[in-house]
Amino acid sequence: MEIEKYILATITTNSTKVTAGASIFICETKEEMDKVAANLEAILDGISHALSDEVYIIVKHG
Amino acid sequence: MNEYTYPILFGILIGVVARMVMLRSDYRQYPTYLHGKIIHLALGFIAASLGAVAVPAIMEMEYTAVTFLTIAASQFREVRNMERNTLTELDGYELVPRGNTYIEGIAIAFESRNYLVIFTSLATTLAFLIWNFYLAVLVAIVCFIITKKYMSGSTLGEIVSVEQSTISFEGAGLYVDNIYIMNIGLPERQKEILKYGMGFIITPKNFNARTTIANLGQRQAILHDVSISLGVFRDSGTPALVPLIKRDLDDGRIGVFILPQAQDVDKAIQVIRAVPVLENAIRMPNKKFRKEGKR
Question: Mean per-residue pLDDT for B189-198?
Answer without folding.
Answer: 92
